[in-house]
Design goal:
The complex is a heterodimer of chains A (433) and B (43). Chain A has 15 helices and 16 strands. Chain A has 433 residues and is α/β, with parallel strands linked by helices. With 43 residues, chain B is mostly helical. Classes of the chains: A alpha/beta (433), B mainly alpha (43).
Amino acid sequence: MQEEKSSFRDPVSKVFNNGNNIYREIYPPYFNEYNKLMNKGLYDELTDCNLLIPHSLIGSRIDKITIIPRMITFISYPYEWCFSMLKSAALNTLAINRIAMEHGMMLKDASAYNMQWDHGSMVLIDTCSFMTYEAGMPWGAYRQFLQHFLYPLVLMAYKDASFGKLSQSYMDGIRAKLAIKLLPGKLRFHPGMLAHVYAQSLNFTVNPNRKVIMSRMALDALLNNLFNLIRSLEYKTRSDWTNYSDGDSYSPAAKKSKDNIIVNLSSKYLYNRVDLGCNTGEYSRSALLAVDSDHDCIEYVFEKREDNLPLIIDLCNPTPAIGWGNTERKSFWDRVHVENIMALALIHHLCVGNNVPLSYVAELFSQHCKNLIIEFVPLEDPKAKLLLGKKNIPPYSLEIFKSEFSKWFNIVGEYPIEDSLRTIYVMERIWGN
Amino acid sequence: MYTDPGALSILIGAVIGFIVGVPMYFLIWKSKLKDWINARRKK
């Protein structure tokens, strides 16, 4: 069993992974809180509402309690989420805290990394995030909540969606002072922003011996106000998606032909699949992951809620490993080990648009899947021509494509798309390479 | 000009009550968070 490096920050529990299951060991200092969570109805209510990951108890000893939380199919990070995913995680965090308070507990931390997409909802995966609430206690995780959720959301809503990636550089969240420098000045006159953004940057001198008291009513008001503020944040995506979905790349006949090819693929190529360059998610239904570098595409796929996890990943600059020893948060490719990779209308963006050699693409894909469904787009294709312009690119042709991919895969299917220059290939990994 | 201290207190009380009460109404009693949680419980 391997210890999950991301769990070292919490001394009261540790997470282990044996490949098939996740184990959480809870240590004596947290026994009281754990028992309170389980016995006072909070656990049942949160799991019923799909807000907390359910777990099974497998061992209870004097020195540790061991639980197996339900496995999350893919661990993703806040800087890979679109605006609506982060907003959903923020609202759920506030709801969890409010429900916990009704049961005499509250969240001791509000890290966005503790929220994960599971069965159609953002759920809390850290069972040890609760502490006993006593009358008069302020919410200790308030600042962390602002830094992990509110500031990125406000920046995305009022400035640009790409600010979501800022959390990758600031793993502990975006500081108020930085958020203020980036936000438009008019927000100073917004009461919610004034309280949660601008007031937070003031350097108050606090006497460490003075006990801060916050009434239950004030705490409720704080949570309600944050909830209303976050609910009111909107992100405007492209209004007209009908013209966007690569529609101009295919004639109606070609589109129909491509749909038929995908629909008739054997189910063994479609399950446990990652759709790279998913665009508006036309072929991402029931995929494990739908990946694209365009925020608006991912926002659109997320709003469709088609039982996949949509993530913003730029394949030419994918999520790196960050945190302590570069092991705390894993890189994108470190987390992708699937049966099938689907890469439709992607190869020309990588090789023509970004000068990635075909051999690099073949080798990378071969390391992360057993089967590959890939669409080859020749240089004569209008979209490829547009990307090529007058620049020089590494050798790119159908012959080189076949030769490079054949080093790693057996080509088991070749399906030309009618009324188009494009062809879909189905490949199976050659073992031993 | 003579001002009745009782009337002045009521006036000040009303102004403070309005300033504090209106935001509190929206912050606490008109709670969307509670409604949202209840809707989630019913699902």
